[in-house]
User: Fold this.
Amino acid sequence: MVQTESIVLPSVDELNVNEVNLTYPVLKAAAFHLGKYCEFKNNEFMLCKCEQSDPRECIEEGKLVTACTLDFFKQLKKHCKDEFSQYYNCIDKASFNYRFNPCRKTQSVFDKCVLNNLNIERPMFGYYAQVKVHDSSRPKPKYNIIEFPVYAAPVSRDEPLLPPKYNSRRLWSQ
Amino acid sequence: MANVKTTPQDMPPAGGYSSITYERIFLKKFFKRSVALAFFVWGVGCVGYYYSYRFKFRTLAEINGARNVLFATLVAERDRAYLKQIRKNRDFEREVMKNVPNWVVGTYYGEPIYKTLVDKYRREDCKEVFSFTDLYSYLYLNHRYTIYGGTPWRF
Assistant:
């Protein structure tokens, strides 16, 4: 394996949180309102993921995203349980690949309930495909840009030849 | 009366009158009937293609929006699972190789796997992550492209 002892990995207790134990049609049915409810946290997390190539850096943001998702589904269960279960049952069973098209009637009932109770309006068509500006308080990441000299230092003939740094590249020339 | 001058009498033109057209004259034909039918079928097909394309585009755009939202939730969960698994793998390696002399965890007898990334975090490959899990979770996540038409799991 690649990970040596000196690499600090987060402990298991740090990573154990309440996960969202829901199937895909349920998540998909609630996706548009969920995106509005957790928009800022999702954007923060995705910004972190884009800036850092290391998953250890974005654990806290990821926990916030999961907590927000769970909170949204708890509120849905509290206020719109019947409408929501009707809608995700339709998405699950009306088509083989969970399309939204055959479920417009149940969707309108669900939308009305969410608008009345949670005060979230369904965003316009194509809202989540748009490019948006996200205002974040995160500090800007520091990129290590390597600066190379314009030309190499002169080498004299008297200096001894060093062994190659990355194994032998000069297999045929030597 | 014989000396009275009169205008010349109307006579038929030289060569006689042209013949009277009593046959029906049809309009000019631009196409043959088969060619016109082919153009009609082509036009109907174009309109049908446009509407089916628009329907498919709108359906997939809506689904992509939903997937964009769920991406953050799913990736957050996946990252945590990944970090747990690489910790498990390291513990397992330490446990298994404790009786082997000169074995250093994460290296091959002290020789680092990546020469330029000594003691630095590096994203693991899929096969490394799934080394000590059951076979079917690996097969599901990586070969569901062939089974279910999804995309393989990448870090």
Remarks:
- Helices of chain A lie at 12-15, 24-29, 31-37, 39-51, 59-79, 81-94, 104-117.
- Chain A is about 45% helix and 0% strand.
- Chain A touches chain B through 48 residues (CB under 8 Å).
- Chain A has a mean pLDDT of 91.
